């Protein structure tokens, strides 16, 4: 069965084995010798754990030195069984679960066979007991039962009785003798009391084989390698479930790490950290209304206190300026929501569906806080946006007002002579929008509001017609620009200043927000990078530590027949389970997470739109965790992890 030909192995220039040769068949065989004589080295070579040596070693005609990783995995699951002096069991699993480990690479668990083996070894009553609570003798029987589940042709035992008392050691050897009647059993030991006269003894001394049996060994037919040797997805999930139950604390830590890292990454990608300045601007909008983003462009104005008496809000000079062509320049600008002409009207009479309405003049410049229905008028046809207060006098809803035709007549000031002269003007126009015309201003530290109920905003075509009726020859009209963002507002203001135009608006308030946003963006960019790096480093650290703590567990799987592909499928199954659990946990705890992020960043990050993003981020972090664990699996050296000795 085994043929060893001129095998030598050196460590640091010293021979652990020196040109030894022998053959070994069925039965019980003892490899004996003093410490450092080469016993463990020979065992490693026979088992295929050590393939770097001089000479040749064969099992059933197959070169052990040339076994591939997959072939070795198949051998460990079907041909070779291993019994160790410190048992190498999965301590947190039950006796039955330990015995079933090799069967995860089969199509069925064959639990009945496992129960039969446990009964034969007289430990059936311990089947559901966790291994860590067993005595040394009981653990050794569990280890033997696990290997018998493979139905192996060879059992290799490395000092199987050294951790046992004399009585338990004798019992263990009786079991191995019984097994050796139809298998090859190789026992490495230094205890001569275990050996009887019928045993085959291979005696090593300082790497030299000084005694071996002289009997002729019958050659055994070669073995076939089964390519179907694999871990199914079903069994990977079953093994994951077993690991979660046995190491629930580890599972919870890993799951929480993925969820926390996912949430931290979500604060980065969602812009929550950098959204504080937007939050401050939103507060200003709540206070001053949407009109805070307005830029008024007028041909002339006199120095005066701004709204609320704050003179700093307006230039401290009388201004006359040419604004010709500016409307056409900005009407299609991507930075603006809309433009509107600031044409004031007096003595307004409006007829709708044959009924005449009088609109009280306020003497104020037309104002628009926000559109509450419809759209702003275009310049090509006679269209108008009417005040919400006017719609209420009609006794209809804002939506019902859209599309109605009105006959509008009023008086307009003609300043062409340098003095204001009221002129009649009228137009028939279609209502295309309804506006909230509330004005908000601060007076003596208190916010006050009023509505400008005579704020009608006509299209350019309609205004051109009415101005012609009022004999106004001046081409330019005052208008306002509603910027999309604070940054857009300041950008347009600076642009106008460079062109020599002085616009009107609450620029100081908005500039503070823009400056804050710039500072916050720079700071949040750094913070986002740091948080992102921290999240990834945290996950890598946790899973590296966990992975390297599991090296012994991975090694036990490997000597049970699991290869890297099998272990990485298990790794994938575990990470998917953790990802799903972390995602569910994030969903359940989202209200608490939002409370935390509102306190830290003044924003909620988990809503219906962001939850899916959060799940995807957890999945991405889980990929990092998978790769980290895969590295730990790759770096697991079976011999070192199982502490099988060095000679």
TrEMBL record:
Keywords: ATP-binding, Membrane, Nucleotide-binding, Transmembrane, Transmembrane helix, Transport. Gene3D superfamilies: P-loop containing nucleotide triphosphate hydrolases. GO terms for molecular function: ATP binding; ATP hydrolysis activity. Coiled coil: none annotated. Residues 2-231 form the ABC transporter domain. The chain crosses the membrane at residues 251-273, 527-548, 584-605, 611-634. SMART domains: AAA. SUPFAM superfamilies: P-loop containing nucleoside triphosphate hydrolases. Belongs to the ABC transporter superfamily. This is ATP-binding cassette domain-containing protein.
């Amino acid at each position: 069965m085994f043929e060893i030909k001129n095998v030598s192995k050196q460590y640091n220039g010293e021979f652990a084995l020196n040109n030894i040769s022998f053959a070994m068949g069925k039965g019980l065989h003892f490899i004996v010798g003093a410490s450092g004589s080469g016993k463990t080295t020979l065992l490693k070579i026979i088992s295929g754990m050590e393939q770097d040596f001089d000479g040749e070693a064969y099992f059933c005609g197959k070169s052990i030195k040339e076994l591939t990783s997959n072939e070795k995995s198949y051998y460990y699951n079907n041909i070779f069984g291993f019994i160790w002096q410190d048992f190498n069991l999965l301590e947190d699993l039950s006796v039955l679960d330990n015995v079933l480990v090799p069967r995860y690479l089969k199509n069925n668990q064959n639990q009945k066979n496992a129960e039969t083996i446990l009964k034969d070894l007289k430990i059936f009553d311990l089947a559901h007991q966790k291994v860590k609570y067993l005595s040394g003798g009981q653990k050794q029987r569990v280890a033997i039962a696990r290997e018998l589940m493979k139905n192996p042709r060879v059992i290799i035992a490395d000092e199987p009785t050294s951790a046992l008392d004399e009585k338990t050691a004798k019992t263990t050897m009786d079991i191995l003798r019984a097994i050796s009647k139809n298998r090859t059993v190789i026992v490495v030991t230094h205890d001569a009391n275990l050996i009887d006269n019928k045993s085959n003894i291979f005696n090593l001394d300082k790497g030299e084989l000084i005694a071996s049996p002289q009997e002729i060994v019958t050659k055994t037919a070669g073995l076939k390698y089964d390519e179907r040797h694999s871990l199914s997805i079903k069994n990977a999930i079953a093994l994951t479930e077993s690991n979660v139950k046995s190491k629930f604390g580890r599972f919870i830590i890993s799951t929480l790490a993925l969820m926390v890292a996912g949430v931290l990454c979500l604060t980065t990608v969602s812009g929550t950290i950098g959204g504080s300045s937007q939050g401050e601007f939103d507060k200003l909008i709540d206070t001053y209304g949407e009109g805070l983003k307005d830029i008024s462009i007028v041909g002339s104005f006199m120095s005066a206190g701004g709204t609320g008496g704050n003179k700093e809000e307006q230039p401290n000079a009388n201004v006359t300026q040419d604004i010709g062509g500016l409307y056409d320049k900005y009407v299609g600008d991507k930075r603006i929501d809309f433009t509107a002409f600031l044409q004031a009207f007096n003595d307004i009479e409006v007829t709708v569906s044959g009924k005449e309405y009088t609109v009280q003049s306020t003497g104020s410049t037309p104002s628009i806080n926000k559109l509450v229905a419809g759209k702003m008028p275009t310049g090509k046809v006679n269209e108008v946006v009417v005040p919400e207060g006017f719609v209420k006098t009609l006794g209809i809803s804002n939506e019902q007002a859209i599309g109605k035709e009105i006959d509008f007549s009023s008086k307009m000031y003609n300043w062409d002579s340098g003095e204001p002269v009221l002129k009649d003007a009228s137009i028939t126009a279609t209502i295309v929008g309804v506006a909230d015309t509330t004005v908000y201003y601060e007076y003596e530290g208190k916010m006050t509001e009023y509505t400008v109920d005579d704020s009608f905003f006509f299209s350019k075509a309609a205004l051109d017609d009415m101005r012609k009726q009022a004999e106004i020859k001046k081409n330019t009209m005052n208008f306002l620009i509603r910027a999309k963002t604070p940054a857009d507002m300041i950008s347009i203001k600076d642009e106008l200043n460079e062109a020599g135009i002085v616009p009107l608006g609450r620029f100081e308030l908005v500039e503070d927000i823009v400056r804050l946003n710039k500072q916050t963006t720079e700071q949040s960019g750094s913070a986002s990078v740091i948080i992102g790096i921290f999240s990834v480093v945290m996950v890598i650290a946790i899973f590296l530590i966990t992975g390297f703590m599991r090296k012994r567990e991975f090694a036990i799987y490997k000597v049970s027949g699991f290869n890297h592909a099998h272990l990485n499928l298990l790794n994938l199954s575990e990470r998917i389970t953790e990802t799903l659990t972390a995602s569910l946990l994030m969903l359940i705890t989202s209200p608490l997470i939002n409370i935390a992020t509102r306190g830290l960043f003044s924003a909620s990050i988990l809503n219906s739109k962001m939850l899916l993003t959060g799940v995807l981020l957890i999945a991405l972090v889980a990929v990092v965790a998978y790769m980290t664990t895969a590295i730990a699996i790759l770096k697991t050296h079976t011999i070192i992890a199982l502490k099988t000795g060095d000679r």
